[in-house]
Amino acid sequence: MTREGYRIAAPGAVEVLERCGVEGPVARLTELAARTPGGLTVVIDSANGLLDGPLGAAGIPVLRADPPVPADGGATAEVLAELGRTRAATLTALPSAGWTMSGREEEIAAADLASETVERQLARCGRLVTGGFSTEPLVTLTFDDGPHPEFTPQVLDVLRRHDAPAAFFCIGLQALAHPDVVRRTADAGQTLGSHTWSHAYLPDLGPAGLARQLGHTGEVLAEACGDDRPTRWLRPPYGGRSPELLRAVDALGLTTVLWDVDAKDWSRPGPATIAERVLDQVRPGSVILMHDGGGDRSQTVAALPAVITGLRERGYRLVGLDEALAAAPAA
Q1: pLDDT tens-digit readout, 49-96
Q2: Cβ(74)–Cβ(209) under 8 Å?
Q3: pLDDT at residue 71, rounded to an integer
Q4: Domains and CATH numbers, the chain
């Protein structure tokens, strides 16, 4: 991925796909696979959490290159293609129904656990929001992986009908492809945040890689809204964090937003199950994770009215991130 979009590299050829959603490179790679004798294999790294799921669903094998090769999330398409050609045995094969970070679950859990002290420090000084931000019956709705040209507007319509605030954590490449949806979200009075440029696992990145992921996304969101003020909020993909990463994000002036209620709507279990999962887990000060992009989110849209109504029937008030931060205990 680049600041302009996607690059696809194969022996002797490079294609550039600019300002398109993830459907663009997936369609092109599917076409190339059908035309290649024996098919093809795609190589990504942990700075790319967009392509592996759709490619796996299309039956295209995906390999992941882990640090220290490539370094700092800066691998070009040409470098990844060469790794696939010369060092395929050193790469990790992703299961077709898995996720970008398959095989690294223990490592990720250990990094999350090691971050708890820094998380508490940042929460006390108003630079991190997570579940339990208040003992009052307040909750915050958040949506990840958009903007999506079909489902984000539908989510916005439901929120408008129910007069409900929410935060939308946008993937930069998606925002580049759909600036009109970003603008509509901002015009609706909803909060915009960064979900990185390409759904990267941020603890793998050094300073340069982190600056690219967050800087590009902030620029595109500001361009879409006609506003030079950078976004204040970051939702790290997969919730991936480390003490070093959290401090680096804080130094860049961003507030990290985690969650304690996961609807797992990406698994598409049905609208009733999505709503039930949220209402069963919620507690005072909860931050609820749902998705408006990253796939078919029709079930999320269908579940959302029951989620909002159910929360209010239980005595909860929906608040935006600014109010959530203000409700947190003082340092």
Answers
A1: 999 999 999 999 999 998 876 667 668 899 899 999 999 999 999 998
A2: yes
A3: 66
A4: 5-93 (no CATH), 106-327 (3.20.20.370)
| Rounded Cα distance, 145 and 172, in Å | 9
Dihedral over Cα of 144, 146, 147, 148: its sign: negative
> Which positions ≥6 away from 185 have C-beta within 8 Å?
147, 152, 156, 168, 192
Q: Rounded distance, CA 119 to CA 24, Å?
A: 38
- Residue closest to 217 by CA, chosen among 241, 234, 240, 237: 234
In one-letter notation, the amino acid at residue 159 is: L
- Please choose, from the candidates 286, 289, 295, the residue with its C-alpha nearest in 3D space to the C-alpha of residue 319: 286
Nearest CA-CA partner of 294 in 205, 222, 195, 213: 195
Whats the size of the chain, residue-wise? 331
Tell me if 66 sits within 8 A of 101, measured CB to CB: no
Residue type, 295: G
What is the average per-residue pLDDT within 105-116? 96
pTM over 0.85: yes
- Which one of the listed residues 148, 199, 216, 291 is annotated catalytic? 291
Kindly name the residue from 144, 250, 265, 292 that is annotated as catalytic. 144
Token pair recorded at residue 136: 């009052």
Do residues 266 and 291 touch, judged by C-beta distance below 8 A? yes
d(CA 48, CA 171) in angstroms, rounded, equals: 11
Distance in angstroms (rounded) separating the CA atoms of residues 49 and 52:
7
Is residue 260 part of the annotated active site? The answer reads no
Q: What would the pLDDT profile of 4-35 be if each residue is shown by its tens digit?
A: 999 999 877 899 999 999 999 999 999 999 99
Phi/psi of residue 15, nearest 5 degrees? -115, 145
Distance CA 73, CA 127 (A): 25
Active site residue 250: no
How would DSSP label each residue in 120-146? Answer: HHHHHTTSEE-TTS-SSSEEEEEEEEE
Residue 331, amino acid: A
Kind of pairing between the strands at 42-45 and 62-65: parallel
Tokens encoding 149: 């040209």
**232: three-class secondary structure by DSSP:** coil
